[in-house]
Design brief:
Blueprint: H1 2-26, H2 28-35, H3 40-60, H4 70-86, E1 93-96, E2 99-105, E3 108-110, H5 112-128, H6 138-157, H7 162-179, H8 183-202, H9 205-215
Helix pairs in contact: 1-3, 4-5, 5-6, 5-7, 6-7
């Protein structure tokens, strides 16, 4: 377990270091144009990293059983709903390029969907690992969890944020399969989800153009 933690930490720190190095090399001109400081975005990135590092350490020392408490799970579910609604509250959420994905509070901008995805993973892991949970049962193993995922997916689509929907489905379906949920129980929901996603993309000019540009690379050089 210690080796696994060490390897994971090295990988994460390596990716963070690479990101900061890239940020330092490409943000100078934009920093001068927008803020008059070539190091503005670099310092901002380093500050966010330090905040994230403190939060990671704080969460790491919490007993994992804490997240399995029913009261904590209920609070996470409430926080998920509040986060999904917050981007649509006038004065708090901000629409950028037709998407309402960010909230601005006391000079700080946050993307609630990132926290929602983590919360959804915690709730799904708790549900599938409850004592006496019948993961191979259609209702307990597939129906109730998929309804919950559907609610969160609708919240993402209202922004709209198709990427988060795909990530939400991929990670949580993987958790369900590892927990022992039967594939035949998941298939109806998977088909419904894929059909709905294809229809939404087909009716969205911007996202449809992204797909067609990949299929016609020679035309869209």
């Amino acid at each position: 377990m210690k080796w696994t933690t060490a390897i994971l930490s090295i990988i994460v720190l390596g990716l963070v270091g690479l990101g900061i190095a890239v940020q330092a090399s490409i943000s100078n001109v934009q920093g001068i144009d927008l803020n008059g400081d070539p190091h503005h975005f670099l310092l901002q990135q380093v500050l966010y990293f330090l905040i994230a590092l403190v939060l990671c350490i704080a969460i790491a020392v919490i007993n994992p059983e804490f997240w399995a408490r029913r009261g904590v799970v209920v609070l996470i579910c409430i926080a998920i709903l509040v986060a999904l609604v917050s981007v649509h509250i006038p004065g708090l959420g901000k629409i950028t390029k037709g998407s309402a994905r960010w909230i601005y509070f006391m000079g700080v901008s946050l993307q609630p969907s990132e926290f929602v995805k983590l919360g959804a993973i915690l709730v799904m892991a708790w549900w599938q690992s409850r004592p006496g949970c019948l993961n191979d049962d259609f209702k307990e193993g597939a129906l109730i969890p998929c309804i919950g995922l559907g609610v969160v997916a609708l919240g993402f689509l209202s922004q709209p944020d198709f990427g988060s929907v795909v990530m939400l489905g991929a990670v949580n379906v993987t958790i369900m399969l590892v927990a022992g949920v039967r594939i035949r129980h998941l298939m109806p929901f998977a088909i419904i989800g894929l059909v709905a996603l294809v229809m939404l993309i087909a009716n969205d000019p911007e996202r449809r153009s992204r797909v067609t540009s990949v299929l016609h690379l020679n035309r869209d050089r």
